[in-house]
Automatic annotation (TrEMBL), chain A:
<keyword id="KW-0547">Nucleotide-binding</keyword>
<feature type="domain" description="ABC transporter">
    <location>
        <begin position="4"/>
        <end position="228"/>
    </location>
</feature>
<dbReference type="InterPro" id="IPR027417">
    <property type="entry name" value="P-loop_NTPase"/>
</dbReference>
<feature type="domain" description="ABC transporter">
    <location>
        <begin position="236"/>
        <end position="457"/>
    </location>
</feature>
<dbReference type="GO" id="GO:0042626">
    <property type="term" value="F:ATPase-coupled transmembrane transporter activity"/>
</dbReference>
<dbReference type="GO" id="GO:0043190">
    <property type="term" value="C:ATP-binding cassette (ABC) transporter complex"/>
</dbReference>
<dbReference type="InterPro" id="IPR015856">
    <property type="entry name" value="ABC_transpr_CbiO/EcfA_su"/>
</dbReference>
<dbReference type="Pfam" id="PF00005">
    <property type="entry name" value="ABC_tran"/>
</dbReference>
<protein>
    <submittedName>
        <fullName>ATP-binding cassette domain-containing protein</fullName>
    </submittedName>
</protein>
<dbReference type="GO" id="GO:0016887">
    <property type="term" value="F:ATP hydrolysis activity"/>
</dbReference>
<dbReference type="InterPro" id="IPR050095">
    <property type="entry name" value="ECF_ABC_transporter_ATP-bd"/>
</dbReference>
<dbReference type="GO" id="GO:0005524">
    <property type="term" value="F:ATP binding"/>
</dbReference>
<keyword id="KW-0813">Transport</keyword>
<dbReference type="InterPro" id="IPR003439">
    <property type="entry name" value="ABC_transporter-like_ATP-bd"/>
</dbReference>
<dbReference type="InterPro" id="IPR003593">
    <property type="entry name" value="AAA+_ATPase"/>
</dbReference>
<keyword id="KW-0067">ATP-binding</keyword>
């Protein structure tokens, strides 16, 4: 018996030339696990909204839910779904809304947390949980409603490998208990042991994908074949440091850190290991850490000290967009730094985004906004470009555009640091900075033994 | 309340914020105290301000001990002091400067009790108290507002840093010139407003998907 059935769904956004869904069909039964993948902006998250019944725009077709069936969801960023400050209160939120008596809540909350493997004090502040734990907490917050179908929006992209392993174990258990699962992801090779049905969402339809066609998830670093040999003064120079917050546990120790013009370094480590903190420290904007002794361009980093020489792309970079048109957004920094405005037009051409020049950046898709935010930094050709998880939530198309842009900047002499929780197979690198077990280790292509050491570790 | 610890422990240990007032009656009393103290900061005659300052000092010490951060209060106080003193100097001269300083101190003393309350009481417990006199939806919104204040501060800081690094003339030394003020509004407040709108919509959806608004008389998590 089907839990959920979508039949002949038609939907399109007013501004879009092509319909997002055209004659889309999907049937989900208890205990099944469906994986839907597709390119950025193909409608994966919109499909989840349609299933949940919260799609605000009109659509055509039939959506049937089995009588009494309950749906739960964990959104792309679990942080925006967290409404309370402590573990127990978060899980109990749904019970409060159902009017469950206070004395009956404790048992149900404990049971839900046990099902997701979170054996932590109920008054633990959510702020102290890792992203993987928050993800499982969100699942527990859904489990108190006893959902028949659980929808997950891009968990693989958000979590590191250990987080994915923890989540997989929980999902496997739920599947065995008869809970149906629907996961949307960019990569088709993820959650191999869990998935029973694979779909590709393209041209408005779901196309079945055979398990054999599912590619392995990329997880190996890619070394540059003709590395940029160290030239000139080091851009980043440190003879060892400890990254630690004031009066708090240290994040990691590092022996030395070197980066030269034109080099690309990958900063890889699990969620919460301190990658973003290190990038912010290099930019001089991390306030609550002990002095590091790292020199950037031979000086101690400080906000605004390096002007157009240093740029940092934060996570969720669309936050920085504020201008009325894409071209104004990109030209903003060129005006402030007194650089030629033609560089913006050149860059848009290079990225194949010239047609978007007069569009508002706020009306663009997630991937396009991401690219525009990066372009607004790349346009002034900084000597050091720091990127915090620049490929998060992007498909192969946008990833390849960003990789091409980074390689071009590298050829022009920009030193680049890219932080991510797993190696980026598409981006050739010269240095690997790997954070594991509270230690940052540096590897370079030049010393083969270093690479071998890394392969032994990884 | 404790059980076997499983899974991966977080690598970053943030200071634990203790919501020490967990009983609904004590929370109601704390709310009344905060209302009284904040109102007193504006209404009490100057001769009583020393006593009020002493009580606020105690709240500051306890709030700091519980893991609260003083930096935000300090930044607001110093910036208000600088602007108000400058305005008093320009408009009234040196002789009325103490009046300006007193006004800024009163504003600070009106803020400290609220700061302390956000550390000592959990937002959901405040929401529970308020639900006795306000509709449930309003109390949820108020509690959510308390809850996202730290996030809001972090988001403001990050957007400000992003724009400074993009060359915006919004650093402190630039903001001495009023012609740069509009850039602060345009580059920082405008994107921040967009983020807040997005966040409020996402939070509303998250609450709705977890049955918010279904039951006429929702209950409350007792711990």
């Amino acid at each position: 018996m089907a839990l959920v059935r979508l039949s002949q769904i038609h939907f399109n956004f007013q501004t879009a030339a092509q319909p997002l869904f055209e004659d889309l069909n999907l049937t989900i039964a208890p205990g099944e696990c469906h994986l839907i993948h597709g390119y950025t902006g193909c409608g994966k998250s919109t499909l989840l909204k349609l299933l949940l019944g919260i799609l605000e725009r009109p659509w055509e077709g039939e959506r049937e839910i089995a009588e009494g069936a309950t749906l739960g969801v964990v959104m792309q960023d679990p942080n925006v779904q967290l409404l309370r400050q402590t573990l127990g209160a978060e899980v109990a939120f749904a019970l409060e809304n159902l009017g469950v008596a206070s004395n009956e809540m404790l048992l149900q909350v404990r049971s839900a947390l046990r099902r997701v493997g979170l054996y932590i004090s109920l008054d633990t502040p959510i702020a102290s949980l890792s992203l993987g734990q928050r993800y499982r907490l969100m699942i527990a917050a859904q489990l108190v409603l006893e959902p028949d179908l659980l929808l997950l929006d891009e968990p693989w992209a958000q979590l590191d490998d250990q987080g994915v392993a923890e989540l997989s174990a929980v999902l496997n258990q739920l599947k065995q208990q008869g809970v149906a699962l629907l996961i949307v992801e960019h990569h088709r090779g993820v959650f191999k042991d869990l998935v029973t049905h694979r779909w590709q969402l393209s041209q408005g339809k779901l196309h079945g994908v055979a398990p054999a066609q599912a590619e392995a998830s990329p997880s190996q670093e890619c070394w540059r074949e003709s590395p940029a040999w160290p030239q000139g003064e080091a851009v980043i120079d440190s003879h060892g440091f400890t990254l630690a917050f004031h009066e708090r546990q240290k994040l990691f120790d590092a022996e030395s850190l070197l980066l030269f013009p034109g080099e690309i370094a990958a900063l890889v480590g699990d969620n919460g290991c301190g990658k973003s903190t290190l990038l912010k420290s290099l930019a001089g904007i991390q306030a609550d850490i002990d002095p590091l002794g790292i020199k950037v361009f031979g000086k101690k980093p400080k906000l605004g000290r390096f002007g157009a020489d240093l740029a940092l792309l934060h996570q969720r970079p669309s936050r920085q967009l504020f201008e009325n048109t894409v071209i104004e957004e990109i030209q903003f920094s060129l005006r402030r730094f007194g650089l030629p405005l033609e560089w913006a037009i050149e860059l848009l051409g290079q990225l194949g985004l010239t047609t978007l020049a007069r569009h508002s950046p706020h009306t663009l898709s997630y991937g396009q906004q991401h690219l525009i935010a990066l372009a607004s930094l790349a346009c002034f050709r900084p000597k050091l470009l720091l990127l915090d998880d620049p490929f998060a939530g992007l498909d192969e198309h946008f990833t390849s555009k960003i990789v091409a842009l980074l390689l071009e900047l590298s050829r022009q002499g920009t030193a680049i640091v890219v932080a991510s929780h797993r190696p980026i197979a598409e981006l050739p690198i010269d240095r690997l900075w790997r954070v594991a077990d509270a230690r940052l280790e540096c590897f370079g292509m030049a010393t083969a033994c270093e690479k071998q050491a890394y392969s032994r570790v990884g | 309340m404790w059980a076997r610890r499983g899974g991966r422990a977080p690598i970053i240990c943030r200071p634990k914020r203790h919501f020490v007032i967990n009983d609904v009656r004590w929370c109601a009393l704390a709310l009344l105290l905060v209302l009284g103290l904040s109102s007193g900061a504006f209404l009490l005659p100057q001769t009583w301000l020393h006593y009020l300052a002493l009580i606020n000092l105690l709240l500051l010490v306890q709030g700091r001990y519980l893991g609260g951060r003083l930096k935000g209060l300090l930044v607001i106080f110093t910036s208000q002091l600088a602007i108000t003193s400058l305005l008093y100097l320009l408009l009234h001269g040196v002789e009325r400067l103490p009046e300006g300083i007193t006004a800024v101190c009163r504003i600070l003393m009106a803020m400290i009790p609220g700061w302390w309350l956000s550390i000592a009481c959990s937002p959901q417990r405040i929401g529970e108290v308020l639900s006795h006199c306000l509709p449930h939806k309003w109390t949820f919104v108020l509690a959510a507002c308390f809850g996202i204040l730290p996030y809001l501060g972090q988001e403001t800081r990050e957007i400000y840093q992003m724009q400074v690094m993009r060359g915006a003339n919004i650093r402190l030394k630039s903001l001495w010139r009023p012609r740069h003020w509009h850039e602060l509004i345009y580059c920082v407040l405008y994107p921040l407003l967009i983020q807040l709108l997005k966040l409020s919509k996402q939070m509303a959806t998250a609450a709705r998907l977890r049955q918010f608004g279904r039951h006429p008389k929702p209950t409350h998590w007792p711990f």
